[in-house]
Amino acid sequence: MRKINRVTAFALAGAATLALAGCSTGGGASSSLPDGIPDSVDAKGETLTVWVMQDDYSEATLDAINEEFTERTGAEVDVQMQPWDGISTKLSTALGTSTPPDVVDIGNTQVAGYATNGALLDVTDYREDLAQGQTWLGGLEEPATVDGSLYGIPGFAGNRAVIYNKTMWAEAGVTEAPTTWDELTAALDTVAAANPAEDFSPLYLPGQHWYVGLQFMWDHGGEIATQEDGEWVSTAGSDASLKGIEAWKEFQNTYSAESSRTVSADKPEQEQILADGKAGAIIASNGSVTATLNANPELTEADLGTFALPGQNEETQPVMLGGSVWGIAAKSANPELALIWTQIAVNPDIQTEYVFGDQGLMPNSEESIEAVEGDLSEVKAGFFQAALNSRATPAAPGWTEVEGANLLQNLFSTVASGAATPEEAAAAYDAKAGEALK
Amino acid sequence: MSTRRRLHRPSPVATTIALIFCVVWAFPTYWMVKSAFTPRKDALTTTPSFLPLNPTLANFETAIFQAGFFDNLRSSVIVVTGAVVFAVLLGLFAAAALSRFRFRGRRQILVLILLIQMIPGAATLIPQYLVFNQAGLLGTYTGLILAYISSTLPFSIWMMRSFFLALPAELEEAAQLDGASTWQVLTRILFPLVLPGMIATSVFTFINAWNDYLIAYTFMKDQSMYTLPVWLASFSSPLTGTDVSGQMAASVLFSLPVVVFFVILQRKLVVGMSAGAVKG
Amino acid sequence: MAPAGIVLAAVTLIPLLVMVYMAFTDYNQRSLFTGEYSFVGFAQFTGILTDPEFWASFVRTIVFTAALVIGSVVIGVGMSHLMTRLSTTMRTVTTIVLVFAWAMPNVAASLVWNWMFQPGYGVMNWILTQLRIFGDMTNTDWGADTGLAFIAIWLLVVWQAVPFIALTIYAAETQVGSEYIEAARLDGASEASIYRLVTLPFLQPTILLVTILSVIWDFNVFNQIWLVSKGGPDGSTSTLGVFTYITAFVGLDIGAGAALALITALLLGAITSVYIRNLIRSGEDL
User: From which residue to which does the signal peptide run (chain A) (predicted)?
Assistant: First the structure.
């Protein structure tokens, strides 16, 4: 027995050393980078691995991209759909190996975390070849740009706007979508007066709906975080930010039922509340229109309308532009093919015909948005209008942690419920977020 | 057995308490099954209906045809079977070694094994990932099986060890006097007697491997090699919301094999556990 | 034996050694990509032990573990005794109900819980509102209130833990020597004192075993908390398991996560040390 133990011990020690040695062998891309993105290469027999997040891109869109890619390169594409839960662990570990996926689909607010740590390829030199004459939306490109270098290539955008029950509003006497803050509050008051039920919300706004909370903060000139001398500082407690938080609280408390103060937008689903007629409006993204219609088969698209939430200081409140960008793994064995694939995925044809045409998502550039504006259905118009005044979350590496730890949900729901004053909640938030942003 | 049970006559008070208990304890299971048969449009109502009106199989159809069900089911079966078989075999040998053979450091090894069991799994995932990456085990069923064995093995060894300890040493001595080899002693005499311990180990390994999401999701590369929990997670996404009815139907399907496994083995399992505790 | 031992060592011990090593480094997300990290000695440990949030999680974990263990053991032992007083049919029904609750995978159970306790549409919210004791709870968000979140998680964990305990204890209780019970009855002892004087001492080792197992499992309970409350609101339901998860996976501060895991294991080891010592000793006697 003792002999076996010694053998085992030796095997153990050896293997542990190996594993650790492996950890410390870093490495850049294993093949050299091209000078520009070539029109065509001969890469027959090779396979490019692309990771796409669940529900981000439809099969038709991906097929169209892949078909063109195979035409240009002869290579095949292996598309892997990934569920959302645990994706940051999966990406962080996979991008560190010597056989990472070549192209990955990342949320636009998540890029900085991977980029500053060297997981993604710096594509600044290929910017022109990738943009293909388009002006990318600032809300997508900014958070993908870290210290002046580009690490993410805009794929599509998504933002929030007010979705309202047009029929209900008309019955209450509001027939025009409001365009100023005063018109908005007047309209909501009218809708409220016509629907006296206690749990009715003229505009249902869950307390944890931090995207909207940020809109109010920005609308009052506040910032959630700013960069000072290259260091990120959390600024929810600044005067302007506090004013925004207070305005958020007042709006939330006035127009949304008391029961909504602590809840999130998906428990219960706000689309369900709207569909059930328990709310006159919600603030949600594009996909929520379909979700609302699915939740109540009696509603049709004609019953719903959308508009950009008017601002107090600006025409429309700045909205947070979410969306998806493509990243290329720094350790990809085939950066050239990865660049070609990405170039196709973001080109104006794919954007207008598939990303917008097939999926109804907002394209990645101002030109593409203009190109499709004529084809906009009425329920889409509000989203595109709102996107014209858009912002992005801070391009700080620690931002992923701020989102991951639910700090913003907590900030806005404790204020909405009155569990903490805006000052207290902001101070608590700044302490934690400041730590994460460092 | 039956004569012993007669010791206590059934009492009406006990029956009433048990009935209440059963209703409370069965309710979550019932609610899951009921929701699974409720049409999606009727699922979210402010006043819940306690009976499945308009029962439908549509949710099960959605669940089964959700991308990846059959692939992921196959992966789960491969991985769980592999993990159970090897965890039982390895646990058996290790437990036999630790309880039947005397060697230096045995006591320390036992304490270490128990301490390992107390380390939160979240912390070992990334080190394990790095080691498996070096060994080329990522993205393979073998790797996933090994990961599951390693997380249940310490517990298995402890459990089986108590059964080995419970066996009288005279049994072996008698067998050895009859001229049986060590191997024969192990296979013919000891193993049948530690069967309850093997069952307990297989149940715990089964549940652990069947349930795991994060290891399967991070260690596997090909989506067709993900296991069922990954498929279960696909019913809620931040973009399209949660399909509660579909999710409940999926949960029923996901729970079914475990229920079957338990119904078959539970009697042996609990007798084994308690016997092991009493004697060990 | 030898190949089994080596495979075992390779899959279990090497990652553990790597983890122990990492606890003394600043290994983080960047190290995953670049392979660079530096040795920091005990800095991770001192950092954790001086972090008030760690101690808050620790206290929370102790209290919550105690509540879970006491709840599941008391109900489990009670149910087990109850089962000895039931007709065969009723006992079978109870066993089936228990096995179903036990068998439900905790991922599925957590989904069911979230659905039952969903604000606005959850059946529990509706039932509690109908009771008219707690007022209108239709829109109560269980995850948003510390006390309610703990109650929901407690119910979930106990619901799943009781069957194992009840069935295991019951199996032991059927082994109680009938001659002792009959003798006690002849002496005119009441049912309660028979249970206390004859049955309980006999069950003691089994109860001790399930209690220790419950302590080990409940101390590291993570899935149920994460799926119900994500450690919120404001970290107030964050136990050591959640704290470790957030450190290792959300912050990807792997070195600190490793140190945290070691501290957790040592604390848990200390809590269960009496039991461990007894077990080892009884093992060595043989």
Answer: 1-21
Chain segment A381-403, per-residue pLDDT in tens: 899 888 888 888 888 888 888 88
Q: What is the CATH number of the domain that holds C176?
A: 1.10.3720.10
Residue C32's nearest CA partner among A271, B222, A120 is A120
Each domain of chain B, given as residue ranges in start order, spans 67-279
Find all residues with CB under 8 Å of A388, minimum gap 6, and list them. Answer: A308, A316
pLDDT < 70 positions in chain A: 1-31
State pLDDT tens for residues A8-57: 444 444 544 555 544 444 344 445 788 888 888 888 899 999 999 988 89
Q: What mean pLDDT is predicted for residues C174-192?
A: 83
Q: Does C270 touch chain B (CB under 8 A)?
A: no
B53: left (phi over 0), alpha (psi -120 to 50) or beta: beta
Please state the ipTM of this predicted complex: 0.86
According to the CATH classification, is domain A44-158+322-382 in 3.30.1360.120?
A: no
| Residues of chain A with C-beta less than 8 angstroms from the C-beta of B143 | none
Compute the distance between CA of residue A437 and CA of residue A430 in angstroms, rounded to an integer: 10
Q: Considering the domain boundaries, does residue C19 fall inside one?
A: no
CA distance B189 to A199: 70
CA contacts within 13 A on the Cβ side of B190: 28
* Structure tokens belonging to residue A248: 């958020």
Q: Which of B8, B28, B44 sits opposite C121 (nearest CB)?
A: B44
pLDDT tier at C9, thresholds 50, 70, 90 = confident
CB C128 within 8 A of CB C137: yes
- Say yes or no: do domains A44-158+322-382 and A160-320+405-437 share a fold: yes
Q: Is residue C179 part of a domain?
A: yes
Contacts of residue A362, defined as CB under 8 A and 6 or more positions apart, other chains included, come to: A156, A157, A158, A159, A286, A323, A356, A369, A383, A384, A387
Give me the residues of C, 35-64, that contact B with CB < 8 A. Answer: none
The fraction of chain C above a pLDDT of 90, given in percent, is 34
The domain locations on chain A are 44-158+322-382, 160-320+405-437
> Comparing C-alpha atoms, which of A37, A281, A65, A14 is closest to residue A167?
A281
Identity of the residue in C8, C209, C257 whose CB atom sits nearest the CB atom of B94: C8
Q: Which chains touch B (3 or more CB pairs under 8 A)?
A: A, C
- What pLDDT does residue B19 have? 94
Enter the CATH code of domain A160-320+405-437: 3.40.190.10
**If you ran DSSP here, which 8-state letter would residue B80 be given?**
H
Residue A23 and residue C13: Cβ atoms within 8 Å?
A: no
Query: Are C120 and A405 a contacting pair at CB < 8 A?
Result: no
In which domain, by residue range, is C179 found?
45-279
Contact at 8 Å (CB) between B280 and B98? Answer: no
Q: How far is C277 from chain B (nearest CA, A)?
A: 9
Q: Is B213 close to A297, i.e. CB distance below 8 A?
A: no
- The closest CB to that of C4, out of B7, B93, B169, belongs to B93
Per-residue pLDDT tens digits for B30-39: 999 999 998 8
> B67-279 maps to which CATH number?
1.10.3720.10
For the record, the structure tokens of A215 come out as 């809109």
CB B59 within 8 A of CB B246: yes
Please name the residue of chain C whose CA is at the shortest distance from the CA of residue A21: C35
Per the CB < 8 Å rule, is A26 touching C36? yes
The DSSP element (H or E) to which B61 belongs, if any, is helix B58-65
Tokens of B152: 């249940």
Q: What chains are in contact with C, requiring at least 3 Cβ pairs below 8 Å?
A: A, B
